[in-house]
C-alpha cells in the first residue's frame, strides 16, 4: 500500500480547463451547488453534458461513449462535483450501471442501454437495500419467480434515490429460495422498468425535508429474460464488484466544496487565526485526499485492482467530509439559519442535516474498516 | 525512482539501526556507525547539486531518503546535512564541507567579520562538522559556515533523545561567508518542514508494520488481538493516517520538480497533514499495543517518541494550517478550487 | 424535588407531543395543545417569583422543567416564558402578562415613549402573547413589554423548524416599561445559555433511550445490532455525553441557589459542555441507527435537529469556552483549582 | 443513570481547606507536581500525612483509621492529587489493599495490616498482570502449591509499580490447575512479602525513561496460610471487586492538573482566543467530570453500588486526560523540550510520554466500554 502521487498529463489538464470553462458559462452566477450525492436531477443539463461526451465517458466508442480512461473521467467528474453541478439524472447510470453492463451484460443489452446512457437519455436507480436490512445486503427478500419468458418480481426496496424520476433500476432479487448454506447464493440482478404498472414508488421523507429517496414496491412485475443482468445466481458477486467501483471517487471528498467555498466568501475575508486555521485544515486534507483518490484512479487505468486502498480512501474521505462541516461551523460561530441571508447559512444547514448519510453510502464506516482490517492483518502473517 | 532510493536506504539501514545502536546514540548524541555508510553511499546529500559537492537529485529523491531514515529512526542528521544546510550553502554558491552538517533558526548578526547571536534547538549541533548559519550582514543576508567547536553549545534534546542544542555565537569568525539569496530563510523553512513530514511518513508506515505484527502474534482470550474489533479499528486508523502523511509529503516533494523548491502551499498542506497524522498514529498504536508498547524494550517507543517530536519541529499542525488558511483566504473563493486542484508536477 | 418536577412534566408531555403534533407545530409555528396543559399546570413560569405572577421555585426547578421539555421536544416557548422573559420582567419589578412570552437580543432604543430597533432570531415571537424587550432608554436600560402584533415580524426557523424570527420595532409604543437592573443583559444571557443546556441534556438522554431501543430490536446478520462492538461503542459515547451534559447543566442550575442567579463560570462550563455533547450525541446516534435514523418518520431526527440547533443558540461551545478561558486566565494559576473545585451550593 | 450534583457539607469544605493549608505549608515553592499514578514515592511525606489521619481514611477507627466517609476521603485525595503530592508509597495500600482486608481479610489480618497501613508504614503493590496476558487477567500462570502450613508460589508478575520499594503485594495465583471449564475458577490472592529471598524484582524501563514499574519473579516463595487473602479459589471475584473500587476517583481526571496550571502560568497570561478557548475547554470538562466523580463517591456513601456509572466516569476521565495533553500542546504551539526552562515544558514532555498509559490503568477503554454497553443494552430489553 501507500501510493505515489500521480501527475496529470497536459491533455488531462486541458480537459479540466475545458470542463471548467463550460461550467462557468453554463451555471448561473447565483447557482446553489448541490451537495452529497452529486447535485440535483436535471435532464436538460445531463443532455447538454452528454453532447460534449461527458456522460458515460468510460463507455467504449463502439457503444456510443468516449472510451475515456478512468483518470479522464475522474477529471470531468471532479469538476462537475466541485461546482455542485446537477448531475443526479445520469449519476448512477454512468457510475454503476454502465460498468455493470460492460462487465456482465449481454451484447444485446450493451447495444441497447449503453448508447442511451451515454446520450444522457437513460437513467438508473439502485435497488439493493430492503426494509430492516441495513448493511446486511444479503438478507434480500424480494423474490423473482421464473415464469414463461422471464421472471415475476415481488418485494420492497428502500433508499432508492430518484426512483420517481429514473427509467430503470437494477434490482437484487432472490431467484432461488434461501437454503441452509451460503446466504449469498441464489441472488440475481434484474433490470426493472420503473414505469411498469406493478412498480409503486413512494417517497421516504428525510430529516432535511427532501423527498428524493423512495420506497419501491414491486407487485408482480414482469421482467423478461433478456433483462437479467449477468448470470442468474451470481447477483451477490456482481453487486459487491459494483460497490468496489463506487468507493474512492471524488464524490467522497467534494460534497463539502460548496460549503467550503461559501465559508471563504462569507467568513474568510481577512480571517482571524481561528478561522484561518479552519480554512487551512480543510484545505490541507482536501489537497491530500484528492491525490489519494487520483492515485486510485490512475492505478485502475494501469490494470491494478486497488480494492483495499479504495476502501481506505472512501473511509478517509467521508470521515473528512463530516469533520469539515463541524470545523467550519465551529469556526463560523453562528446560529444555523436554514433561511439565512448568505449561501453559507443555507449550505451549512443542508450539510448538518445531510452529513449523517455521508458515511452510509457505499458501505458504512464499519464495513469499510472491516475490509481494510482484514487486508492489513492478512498482509502481516 | 524514488521507490528505488527508499529501498536502497532501507536495506542499508536495516541491520545497522539496532536497539543497542539507538540506546548508544541517545547517550553519545548520534551514531557514527549509522552515519558512515549513509555518507559513503552518497545518501546524506541527495537533493544538493553536484556542482556544490552534493550527490545531486531532486527534493523528491531527498525525501525518499528521509522516509527510509525516518522509518529506521536513524539517529543521524541526514535531513540537516542535505536538504537543510546543504541546499542552503549551495544556494549561496558555497561548496559543502565534508561530514555531517546542520543549521538552525535564530537571530544572528555578522559585523566586522564576526558572528554574534543565538540559534535555538539546533539539531545535532555538537555532532556536526560544520553549522550553516543564516545571518544579517552589513550588506544584507549572508550564509556563514561555522565550526561548532568555535561556538558555545548547551545541551538539549527532543522527546526521542535526539540532540536539539542551543548554539551561542559570541563573536565567532566564520570559515566562509557568501551573500544569501533573498528567499533563503523562507525556502529553508519550507524544506525543513517538508523534511520532517517525510520522516514522519516513514516512521508512521513503520509503526503500522510493528503494530500489525505485534497484534497479530499476541493472543488474548484465545485469538490474536488484531481480530478484536477495537484493535482492528486502531490498525485501520494507523493505515489511513500513514497513507495521508505519505501522500502529502510525497506530493509536496514531487511538486518541487527536478531542480526546484517545494511550493509554499504544498509544504503547508504536507506539514499540517503529517503533523496531525503523527499524533493520531502514535496514540492509536499505543492504544492497540497496550502496556507492551510503552516499554523501552519494544520497537514502538523509538518511533512514537520521534513522531511526538518531529510533528512540532519547524511548525506544527496549527501553525501550518493557519498559514495555509491565510494564503487560501487571500486567494478568495474563486481561486480556492483551482488552487487546491493544481496537480503535482 | 427537581426529579419530581422532571417526572411530572415528562408525564404530562408523554402522550401530548406526538409525531403528528410535531409536524403540525412545524407548519403552525407552535403547538397550543402542548402549551395549554403546561401553562395550566404552572410549569411555564417555574423559577419566576410568585410576587411577579410566576409559579415560584428555583432556577434548578425551572431547568428540571426544561430537561423534560427538551426530552419531549415540546414545540412551545417554555424556556422563553419563564427563565428568560419572565425573570427579566420580574427583575424589573413588572408583573407577567398571561400567555407565552419571549425575548431576544438586539439593539433597541426607547425615545419619546417609542421603541425602535431590531431583535434577531427571536424564538417563538409570533406565537407569543408579549415580547419582553431590553432597550436603551434616556435614563438607562429599561425593560419594555411589547405586543408582537405591533411589530414587524419576519419568518425564520432553526434546523428543527422552531420559529426564530426577526422582530423590527419601528416606533412601537410599549404597553409598560420599567428600569432594568444594571446586570439584566448579562443575567439574561446566562439564563438563556443555561436553559439551552438543560434542554440539550434532556434531549440527549432521550436520544440514548431511542437509540438503545432501536439497536436492541433491530436484527442484522442474526443478532441485535447493539451487540456489534462498533454500535455498542456509539451507545456508550452517547451515554457518556448525556451524563456530561446533564451533570453540567444541573450543577450550574443547582449552583444558583434557592433565589439566586447561576454563576458566570458555571454557566460557561455548562454551555460549553452541553454544546459539545449535543453534536457528539447526534453524530453517534445517527451512526448507530444508520439510514432509519435520518428518515422523518423515526423519532431520532426530531431530537437531533434540536440538538444541532440549540447547541449554538446564545453562544456555542467555542464562544463559551473562550469566555471561560479568559475568566480562568485572569484568575491566574493559583486560583485555578480553588475556582474549579468550588462545590455546588 | 444520570446523577444529581451533590453539594459538599460545611464540614467537608472545612476539611478541604485544612488539607490545602497543609500542602501550601509542606510542599516547596518550586515543587514539581507528580502526574498520573499519584506522584512520587516519599515515605516521609506518607508518614506526615498519616499523622494527620489522612492515610487509610476509610479504615474504621478500631483498626487505627479515621473511619471517614467516601466523600471525606474523596476530598483529601482530590487535594493531594491536585497538588501532585508524593503519595505513591501508600497509594495502593490505601486505595486497594485496605478495602480488600476489610471485605475479605481475617480478623487477625485486619489487626495486623490495617493499623500499619493507616500509619503509613505498610506499603503495597499489585500483583495481577503477567507476561503476555494484557487485559486477560484470568490467564494467570503463577502457581501456588499447597505445602505444610502454607503455599509455595512460583511465577512472574509484570507492571508491578514500586515493587522495589514496597513491603507487600497481593498476588493473584492459580491454586488449582486450570480445568476445562471456568477460566476464573481456582484463583486465589496471596500476600507476598516482597523482602522474601525468593522474590526477585527487576525494573521494566519505560519510554519516559522511568523505572518505577517492575517485573517480579517469584521463585518458590513461601506464603503461610494466614497470609491468604479471602477464600482460596475466590481470587477472581475478589480482584474484580477491587478493580471496581478504583474506577472513578479523582485520579481519573487530575493527572493533568499540574500541566494545566503550568499552562496558565506560562502561556495563559492575557491569552489570545485560541489559548483562551483551550483553557476554557479543559476547565469546563474538568469542572463537570469532577461533579460526576463526586456523585459516585456520595452514592457509595449512601449504600448504592454504581458500578456502571463508575466505569463511564473512568472512561470519560481518562479520555479527557489524554485530550487535555493534546489540547494544551496544540494551544501552546511549541516544540516539546523535556529539559526546557519552564515547568510547562517539563510537564508537557512527561505527559506526552505517559498519556498512553492512562487508559490502561484499571481496565482498558475497551473493557470499560464493554461493561457499560452491556448495562445499557440490558436496561433496554
UniProtKB/TrEMBL annotation, chains A, D:
Q: Which UniProt keywords apply?
A: Flavoprotein, Oxidoreductase
Q: Which residues form the Acyl-CoA oxidase/dehydrogenase middle domain?
A: 126-206
- InterPro entries to which the protein is assigned, alphabetical: Acyl-CoA_DH_CS, Acyl-CoA_Oxase/DH_mid-dom, Acyl-CoA_Oxase/DH_mid-dom_sf, AcylCo_DH-like_C, AcylCoA_DH/ox_N, AcylCoA_DH/ox_N_sf, AcylCoA_DH/oxidase_NM_dom_sf, Mycobact_Acyl-CoA_DH
Domain Acyl-CoA dehydrogenase/oxidase N-terminal: residue ranges: 10-121
Cofactor(s) needed by this chain:
FAD
Q: What is this protein called?
A: Acyl-CoA dehydrogenase family protein
TrEMBL record, chains B, C:
The UniProt record lists the keyword Lyase: no
Q: What Pfam families does the entry give?
A: Acyl-CoA_dh_1, Acyl-CoA_dh_N
The domain of life is Bacteria
Q: Which InterPro entries match?
A: AcylCo_DH-like_C, AcylCo_DH/oxidase_C, AcylCoA_DH/ox_N, AcylCoA_DH/ox_N_sf, AcylCoA_DH/oxidase_NM_dom_sf
Keywords recorded for this protein, A-Z: FAD, Flavoprotein, Oxidoreductase
Is Flavoprotein found in the keyword set? Answer: yes
Describe the location of the Acyl-CoA dehydrogenase/oxidase C-terminal domain by residue ranges: 194-306
Domain Acyl-CoA dehydrogenase/oxidase N-terminal as annotated: residue spans: 4-85
Name the needed cofactors. FAD
Q: Which family does it belong to?
A: Belongs to the acyl-CoA dehydrogenase family.
- Its recorded name reads Acyl-CoA dehydrogenase family protein
Organism of this sequence: Actinomycetospora rhizophila
